[in-house]
Fold each of these.
Amino acid sequence: MPNDKLPLKIAIATYGHTAAVKDGRAPIEGVAPDFVEISPIIAAFRRMVRDVEFDVCEMAPATYMIARAAGAPFKALPVFVFRRFHHGGFVYRDDAGISKPKDLEGKKAGVRAYSVSTGIWTRGILQNDCGVDVSKVTWVVDDEEHVTSLRLPSNVVHAPEGQSLVSMMADGSLQAAFTGPAGIGRSGEPKEGWDASNARQAPGYTEMFPDTLAAERDWYQRTGIYPVHGLIVVKDELLAEHPWLAKSLFNAFVKSKELWLEQLKRGVVNSDTDRHYQAMSEIVGDPLPLGITPNRPAIEALIQYSYQQKLLPKHYRIDELFIDPQAA
């Protein structure tokens, strides 16, 4: 490792478990970081896949896989900075003739963009766990895909001019939709204040999986899959020129997570995100496992789902998509 620190432009959100990386308590050895604040962080994903604007960047894992398959010059570390299950947040209208997942076939469902990770995970559950032929659902989108070269399946259509998922769900043009940022909880492309537009669930919309917590717990116990929803990518040229960099970054995130877990154990809870991971730990134990081995079921599932949904041209091996900083 050289004496002069490597300057890196880094775009990651501030979570409890990343805070120590950003404030210097968990330094990245050999690196002089320039942290760029972007809100919402989703906007950074788009800037990275289109312009490779940052040296290190947080990114949705499916967006990354699609971009990598299209030739993007960056590779992922097995550092997963956001996790959640995906049985909640998919709703249907009470007058839609839907009472079970299989009833979605022949219907229209709204999702912000076809390649958003939330959509991929939930469609994967519907297909592989509930027997739904997701190709028989018309998926209506009202935003661009992050990766502009992505060719979408024929059952994906854009909302008509002047309409949004919110308006289409309200007037019955859609029978189902994702809530929150993945669907009817926002409008337009990611921009400042976008998350604040998170709409309240309208009356007359029902969760596809009503006992969400029980469904999540059962699914995890059966499959071992704890969905990944955010990871860290690094420019290929930097990884090639500085072989120590991957491990240095990984170690910093491990240290930051350790400091955060110690804080939680002391009862210091600073945000809804902290509370979210406290709840997750009751199901999975470690709420933010890092590295390839503990995350293998989730990584393999996301690759499988993305391939099934025609978002990847082949079923990739993990080592084609991830660098393992713990490998000998």
Note: Residues 90-222 form a domain with the D-Maltodextrin-Binding Protein; domain 2 fold (CATH 3.40.190).
Amino acid sequence: MLEMEQYVNKNRREYLDSLFTFLRQESISAQNIGMEACSAMLVEMVENIGLNTSLIETDGHPVVYGEKIKDPKLFTLLIYGHYDVQPPDPIEEWNTPPFEPTIKDGKIFCRGAGDNKGQIMAQLLAIKSYQEVIGELPINIKVVIEGEEESGSPNLARFVEEHQKLLKADLVYTSDGPMHDSGAPFVLLGVRGMLFIELLAKGAEWDNHSGNKGNIAPNPAWKLIDLLQTMRDQNGNVLIEGFYDDLRKPTENELELISTLPFDPKSIAEKIGYKEFDMTKEAYYKKLTLEPTFNIAGFHSGYGGEGAKTIIPSIANVKIDFRLVVDQDPDDIYRKIEKHVKKYAPDVEIIRHGSMKASRTPADSKEVAIIKKAVEKSYHQKPILQPSLGGSLPDYVWTQLLGVPSVVVPYANFDEANHSPNENINVENFFDGIMCTCHVIHELGKAYA
């Protein structure tokens, strides 16, 4: 692969220009800003690397699909990514313009640099580089790049269900998220699922004076606090009946994987900004990858501005995200939450904002072994194999709907600040991602020749 590396190095400026053009095009799915222009741009980019490309409409933003089928009987790799990005807010916290890629201290700062434009562009440029150097691809390649991942991928499952023949593949390969905090490459075998809800409590029809109407007008904030205490105990255990019923017991293989993972509690404490962090390695990785969560993402009621305003608020709301593990079904968990709320606070309204199923690929599969080998050859070190990502991606559409194994190999640096101001990707991480994808294609070609 030395010739490939030389070719990529020779074309660094051109490849950065391609990435920068992609980054400058806004594509905020939540606000429908720039989505049509970005998808059209991406179609042209995918066509230019030699794939047969089409724009496939959904009930939301379209999917950019590309393929290069050498022989239908050959191994087929499906590469997944997304072209939409998070809103840049708060703008004032950016040190550079959020949609003007800027290189500083070896990093490319721009919204989407790490999540996910930089990583999907690395994969596309790898396909181009491989064809330019070797002459033809050794396997079939399919590319699915959606425009709604940052909004929960509401239409991806239906897209996969309606295009199963088109999307037929032997392995799905995703590059998203950050590498391990040690800087080592990751091979992730799954993701946690997610359910996002809001609980809304109402008191009087308007805010009231906390003295003149104190003990008279009800305070909905207390109603939510009392309800929340029936849902989770002080040790973090979820008290919703049946919440843990369908937890899949970790395999011996998965527990063995955890025992081999690197662990630096001091580094973790610094990187999460919590000096009191105190956890064993086994507990840390179990909680991060194999156990569900109950998280209050936001709680609002009454006055939160400067100074004092003595009121009894009329409304209170709390936003909660549950990270779920296989085989927890978000629909089933939602029904159990509904039942719990009806029992303890029947006048509290539940609003469902989105959900995603968890996913897991067996660690002992042949495809995983090949990906591990390719990543090790690319980075010249053994990758960290982890049962699951702590976060959520729509990986289940591949493992459960398409019925194929799926792996996630992040290319972005651990401090990419995705979803935050000053999002970035290291310049070298971008080029390492190109080379890693080249190695993946090459090793799959050798294994399935």
Note: The longest helix spans residues 427-447.
Amino acid sequence: MAAYILRRLLLMIPTLLGIMLVSFIVVQFAPGGPVERVIAQLTGTEVSATARVGGGSGDFGANQGTSGGSGGDVTSKYRGAQGLDPEFIKELEKQFGFDKPVHERFGLMIWNYARFDFGESYFRDVAVVDLVLEKMPVSISLGLWTTLITYLISIPLGIAKAVRDGSRFDVWTSGAIIVGYAVPGFLFAVFLIVVFAGGNYFQIFPLRGLTSENWAELPWYAQILDYFWHIALPVLSMVIGAFATTTLLTKNSFLDEIKKHYVVTARAKGLKERQVLYGHVFRNAMLIVVAGFPGAFVGAFFAGSILIETIFSLDGLGLLSFESIVNRDYPVVFATLYIFSLIGMVVTLISDLTYTWIDPRIDFETREV
């Protein structure tokens, strides 16, 4: 097992390099960039992703004077740069690191990331690590509770549907699951706000934030209640469509196992149905469900909450990544991509190792990575 873990860890290195290289190349051909954004600030044509993004390096450009020079060759590279001092443009390129060749910039980025040095945001004037840590509690809350509640609902429901396959219970729960899966999470979030957060009917839950403004002054038990009070609607919005796939996967996996010969043999020996189901079938049927855990967790943790964070004014990693891409804040874009990819691969490895805990018959040492 140690040799398998070592091979998987070593395989992460070229995988990360490939992800970062492809992303870096795509960015080179993408229109716009941090230099163009500062120029747009100077000319009054900037359109930001949100009103919260600004300051930092952008103030550098706003504080510089302009000249009526011809623009030169350096200004011709950037849209809207005509009329700006070429030396000022060169200073911008140096500030953002674009005075170096492409391969040198990529090599320096990889070297820094290997040491977990992610630099500073272009437009927020704060270290990327500090920025990510600041947004982490929101994404952890959404991802953790969404995944936990999804599995707590999906596994028992999937087992119940498998045992009652074809019954009325199976039919109407399948209908409810399909409807829940078909309704977009952000649309359900708007519905919850309208009904329960002061839209038109009830004012039961808060509309924004992860905690109340006086959270630090509350006693510990009130802090816990306040936290769950704020997180209830966002998590419910994400759970409504998340459990459908896992429920049907659990059901189909149990149905497949129930039809196998060892189940017939166990029943013939006089074992009770519960003993057969949870003593024999459960371990084998849950393997495929466990395989889907990394994707469910990482998806809910990082990608599945962008719109939910926006609707409920939750400043998390999903919203941070979206804003950084739109505003061309490349240090944040590449750092979050690197962190997300690394965490995803580690979680996938943990999931594979969980296979051996659920079913000791699986031996990764005999497999090729």
Note: Residues 27 and 328 are 9 Å apart (CA to CA).
